[in-house]
Amino acid sequence: MKQFNRKIRQLFISIITVLTVSVSCFSVVFALDYQLEVELKADYAYVYDITHDTILLDKNSQARMYPASMTKMLAEIIALESYPDWDQKIEITWPMIAGLWEADASRIGYTTGDVATVRDLLYGVMLPSAADSVHALGITLDGSISAFVDHMNRKAKEIGMTDSHFVTPSG
User: Fold this and answer.
1) Residue 9 CB neighbours (<10 A)
2) Which of 46, 65, 124, 146 could form a disulfide with 130 if both were Cys (CB 3.0 to 4.6 A apart)?
3) In degrees rounded to 5, what are phi and psi of residue 47?
4) Alpha helices in 64-168 (DSSP H)
5) Which of 78, 88, 94 is nearest to 155 (CA)?
6) Backbone phi, then psi, for 105, in 5-degree steps?
7) What is the pTM of this model?
8) Phi and psi of 56, rounded to 5°?
9) By C-alpha distance, which of 93, 103, 117, 126 is closest to 16?
10) CA distance 48 to 56
């Protein structure tokens, strides 16, 4: 797997940590060898110590699952790598939000004409797992949802996700 630059790797670990904590409730006890002993209620979990190149926790990481919000994490990685200016302003257009309300997708609630920074959209993807945020980033980057999904699938293969195929950036 190719190395991400340090800032992106640290943010990715933070994202996974926030997601793991928000999805499951567990108590963690660190052992001296950096292995985690946990009581998990989540069906899936994976924690990797990038500093020591060690898997700290692996629960069903190879199992097939409906990716839901995890899909947005790959989209987030692409956005972090692709947008050098997180203060760049993006105007929300109809294609970025079309169908999300009807699909009952998690969203910030942007409407056509709203303006958000890349930073705001990145937070929107990470914290409330907002589909409108990920769509805005993807369409601005690649021109359409389908082109962004193609980008996601190329990135997935590049980083070793050989058993993954995405059809939407929002899960």
Assistant:
1) 16
2) 124
3) -130, 125
4) 70-82, 94-97, 118-126, 131-142, 145-158
5) 78
6) -75, 150
7) 0.70
8) -90, -30
9) 126
10) 5
Q: CA 7 → CA 11, 71, 86, 148, distances in Å? A: 6, 21, 13, 23
Give 18-67 pLDDT, tens digit per residue: 445 444 433 343 433 555 676 888 888 888 999 999 999 899 988 887 77
- Amino acid sitting at position 162: T
Structure tokens, 86: 């997180």
Tokens coding 15: 């994202």
Kindly list the distances between the CA atom of residue 33 and the CA atoms of 9, 25, 42, in Å, as whole numbers in the listed order: 22, 23, 23
CA-nearest of 118, 113, 127, 109 to 69 is: 127
CA–CA separation, 85 and 8 (whole Å): 14
Give CA torsion, residues 64, 68, 70, 72, to 10 deg: 140
Query: What phi, psi does 2 have (nearest 5°)?
Result: -65, 150
